[in-house]
Amino acid sequence: MNKRTVKQFIKSNIVLAVIVLIVFGYYMYKKPSIPRKSDEVTEYVSGNTERVYGDKRVFDYGEALTDKEEEDLEFYIHEVEKEIGNDIVIVTLNESLKEYAEDYCKRYNMEMVSPDKYVMLYADEFWEVNKFGFDRPQILDGTQNTGDGVILVDNLFREPETGRIYTWMGTTGQAELRYSSDEIDHALDVFYDNLDEDYKHGLMSFVTQVSYDLDTEIVDLAFKPFAIIVAGFVLLIFVLTHLKSKSGKVTTTANTYVSPGGAKFVVHEDRFLRKSVSKVYDPPSSSSSSGGGGGHHTSGGGGSHGGGGHSR
């Protein structure tokens, strides 16, 4: 490559290089960091004064934690809540939840739900009855405007019908709008993956993941419009530069490679006796994997919730 070619290459790509540098600089400026005690962090103040249990967030009914572990988890959750502006509630159980499903089905005149949904019904009711929500208690009108927060219910009881332990992560209000189904699955994976070390570590890891998920949304929202504009500008530059590029000279004609005797073509004919195309309709799920509202459903009390479950 000679000097002239190098100069032309630099000249034609300098605009793209500048754009890349701008995007990278903006990203580094906006990139979230893990808050340290010495950092200045804006703290959210909860407006909910109606919670039944006041400041309590950990309900170890399954007796999976020691008193000290429960105290440590409570403290950590309150610190995280100030950063993300959402309630985080942890419930452990060791009992069959089938009765919650029976009451739900009687209320709505429907057949029994599957065992994996028992814990979901419990989580929804626990959230609503005890008036959780960082902004204010959830208004049970089917909207996603109130009751901001996340609940994790881990039932250590093995349901006899399946012999499995079920866990549910529920989202409400801003948390429901924020979380996709994939992100809920990931948060539950984090909890399950860290249970091997010890139970408290698994719960701590889950709270840390929720902290990261809900604390980075503002950054994402601020970055996306800028990224879209830059991407469109880059595409425009790319199209304009390629439209101006010179096309190669034509060095052949239509008869360049035709033999003196002319071209001969063998004709093949296919006959289709029957053509049948079948389509299977795959109805959309109520869950969303790419945007917010993952696992959206309406509770027995009429509230809007999202969420997802795992079992082991």
How would you characterize this protein structure?
It is built from 8 helices and 6 strands; from the N terminus they run H-E-H-E-H-H-E-E-H-H-H-H-E-E. It folds into 2 domains: 3-30 and 221-242; 58-218 and 294-311, Diaminopimelate Epimerase, Chain A, domain 1 (Roll), CATH 3.10.310.50. Mean pLDDT is 77; it is low at 27-39, 217-224 and 265-290. The N and C termini lie far apart (61 Å). It has helices at 3-30, 67-84, 98-108, 118-129, 174-178, 181-193, 199-215, 217-243, and strands at residues 58-60, 87-93, 149-159, 164-172, 297-298, 304-311. It has a 6-stranded mixed sheet with strand order 1-2-3-4-6-5, with helices on both faces. Strand 5 (297-298) and strand 6 form a beta hairpin.
Topology of helices and strands:
Elements: H1 3-30, E1 58-60, H2 67-84, E2 87-93, H3 98-108, H4 118-129, E3 149-159, E4 164-172, H5 174-178, H6 181-193, H7 199-215, H8 217-243, E5 297-298, E6 304-311
Parallel strand pairs: 1-2, 2-3
Antiparallel strand pairs: 3-4, 4-6, 5-6
Which bin fits the share of residues in helices? 40-55%
Query: What is the number of helical segments per DSSP (H or I, 4+ residues)?
Result: 8
Mean pLDDT: 77
Global Rg:
29 Å
**Sheet having the most strands:** 6 strands, mixed
Structural class: alpha/beta
Low-confidence stretches: 27-39, 217-224, 265-290
Number of domains: 2
CATH topology of the largest domain: Diaminopimelate Epimerase, Chain A, domain 1
Strand order of the largest sheet: 1-2-3-4-6-5
CATH arch. level architecture of the largest domain: Roll
Strand content: 5-15%
